[in-house]
């Protein structure tokens, strides 16, 4: 079996450990690209994991879109990785079997044959078939679906369902990222019969085959998932269910885990991290980041369509100050492209150092704005650290004459306005992806589903597309580094910082197996020592 795939390196310094979520045999997609990862497993009680109980998880915000092929918010990935499953799975850089128990790739890299396991069932009770695989990939590629990551799949020319258990993918050219792409939640295999009957997958519709199934949802308040009794992996999940609740109040979330109201606090606000670490009733995991923050500029409108204006903004920002104020210093200032320096394909030397106010003013003058200009900066009101980022950026840009008005809006409004190009600047962020291609393609290529403002640079696009088909990992990394330099120097975003993620759990929450790529599929292995 030949499994070709190059995966993103994990960030160093990730704590929390455990074994991969599957013990089934499968070829690794890791070509030796993983950075050194420090794993600090806390001592676990003797004995086997216990089955039963429900885990109460609190997250800041609910997702606006829960269709796995359409989602873009991190909270949607957290939830959907419990409900849905893909052909393969990625864990700490290794590709493992999932719905597909094995796969073979042709010598020329243009054909991949997946053999599905015989005991994978949708929550509807119907067996997962190759026809569902074919339907799912074609649904992602269909422009009517408006899948944000559709361009990543453009090299798949066809999927053939040979029989119920055999799906054959044909590629236009070798693709170094294909297995990693097919391991993501965005590549979930969905139940065709459910989608056809319900007309979609958002809201209360469950078309998945993952370890947990949707039991109920109150939008913006709670989602309950129950154990999928016919899940293919023997013995898991251990829990009877997952109970998600949502609260944008940072104080309330911290208080909930300290009082024992919740078992698992997902990513507490940075100002509470030190206190939560000191609480002897709790355990914490993390330290590695997975969210790359940025100031998005709408290059479809003036003055942001002028590269000199964008460069002036890039030069005016003090990224370390933004990190210190917005995230209490937890994270890494990003003084180059999207990728932090320890990730595969990243620039290791900064493009920007200390702010250069005089050079920034000169660039604005050359662009025809000697006195600066008025600008609006949109930010999601319920994201406190994003609001703080916007406030610091407002102060820093004032130094070069850009007079910023902050627009605090609800997440649904931000989603609508970014997709329609109705903004000047947008304080936001993108999660790191398993492989750089997925993020670069969706967020920075022309017509990418997350390329708000539709920035286009032919040289950048050529590098990213070329890297996708480059199977030599060193040559591929060099192509990404060239692309990152272009992104940093003339792209549509001013990168600011990579956050540092932490999860805080009660002492009796066991089996945490974090992965900074990131993935959340390890929740199936969590159990309660009660």
UniProtKB/TrEMBL annotation:
Protein family according to the UniProt entry: Belongs to the bacterial solute-binding protein 5 family.
Region (Disordered): 14-33
Gene3D superfamilies reported in the protein's UniProt record: Dipeptide-binding Protein, Domain 1, Dipeptide-binding Protein, Domain 3, Periplasmic binding protein-like II
Protein name: Solute-binding protein family 5 domain-containing protein
Pfam families assigned to the protein according to its UniProt record, in alphabetical order: SBP_bac_5
Example GO biological process: peptide transport
Chief location of this protein within or outside the cell: other
Compartments, as annotated in UniProt: Cell envelope
Organism listed in the record: Micromonospora rosaria
């Amino acid at each position: 079996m030949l499994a070709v795939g190059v995966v993103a390196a994990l960030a160093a310094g990730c704590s929390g450990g455990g074994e991969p979520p599957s013990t089934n045999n499968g070829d690794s997609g890791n070509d030796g690209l993983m950075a050194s990862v420090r794993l600090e497993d806390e001592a676990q009680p003797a004995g086997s994991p216990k089955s039963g109980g429900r885990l109460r998880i609190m997250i800041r915000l609910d997702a606006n879109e829960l269709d796995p092929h359409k989602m873009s918010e991190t909270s949607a990935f957290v939830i959907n990785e419990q409900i849905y499953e893909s052909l393969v799975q990625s864990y700490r850089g290794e590709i493992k079997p999932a719905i597909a128990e094995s796969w073979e790739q042709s010598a020329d890299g243009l054909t991949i044959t997946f053999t599905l396991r015989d005991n994978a069932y949708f929550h509807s009770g119907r067996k997962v078939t190759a026809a569902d695989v074919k339907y799912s990939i074609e649904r992602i590629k269909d422009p009517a679906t408006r899948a944000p990551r559709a361009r990543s799949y453009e090299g798949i020319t066809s999927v053939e369902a040979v029989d119920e258990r055999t799906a054959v993918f044909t590629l236009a050219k070798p693709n170094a990222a294909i297995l990693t792409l097919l391991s993501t939640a965005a590549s979930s295999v969905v139940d065709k019969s459910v989608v056809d009957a319900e007309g979609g997958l958002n809201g209360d519709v469950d078309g998945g085959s993952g370890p947990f199934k949707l039991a109920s949802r109150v939008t913006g308040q709670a989602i309950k998932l129950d154990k999928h009794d016919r899940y293919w992996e023997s013995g898991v999940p251990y829990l009877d269910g997952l109970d998600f609740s949502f609260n944008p109040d940072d104080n309330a979330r911290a208080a909930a885990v300290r009082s024992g109201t919740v078992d698992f606090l997902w990513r507490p606000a940075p100002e509470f991290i030190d206190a939560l670490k000191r609480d002897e009733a709790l355990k914490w995991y993390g330290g590695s980041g997975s969210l790359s923050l940025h100031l998005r500029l709408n290059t479809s409108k003036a003055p942001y369509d002028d590269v000199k204006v964008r460069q002036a903004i890039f030069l005016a920002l003090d990224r370390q100050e933004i990190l210190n104020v917005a995230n209490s210093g937890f994270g890494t200032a990003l003084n180059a492209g999207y990728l932090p320096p320890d990730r595969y394909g990243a620039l290791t030397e900064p493009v920007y150092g200390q702010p250069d106010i005089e050079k920034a003013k000169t660039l604005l003058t050359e662009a025809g704005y000697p006195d600066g200009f008025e600008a609006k900066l949109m930010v999601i009101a319920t994201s406190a650290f994003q609001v703080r980022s916007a406030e610091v950026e407002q102060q820093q840009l004032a130094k070069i004459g850009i007079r910023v008005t902050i627009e605090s809006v609800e997440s649904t409004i931000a989603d609508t306005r970014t997709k329609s190009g109705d903004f000047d600047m947008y304080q936001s962020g993108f999660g790191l992806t398993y492989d750089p291609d997925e993020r670069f393609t969706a967020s920075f290529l022309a017509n990418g589903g997350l390329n708000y403002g539709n920035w286009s640079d032919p040289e950048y696009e050529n590098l990213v597309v070329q890297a996708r088909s480059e199977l030599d990992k060193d040559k591929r990394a060099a192509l990404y580094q060239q692309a990152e330099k272009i992104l940093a120097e003339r792209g549509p975003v001013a990168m600011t910082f990579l956050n540092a993620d932490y999860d805080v759990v009660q002492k009796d929450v066991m089996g945490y197996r974090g992965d900074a790529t990131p993935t959340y599929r390890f929740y199936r292995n969590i159990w309660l020592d009660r």
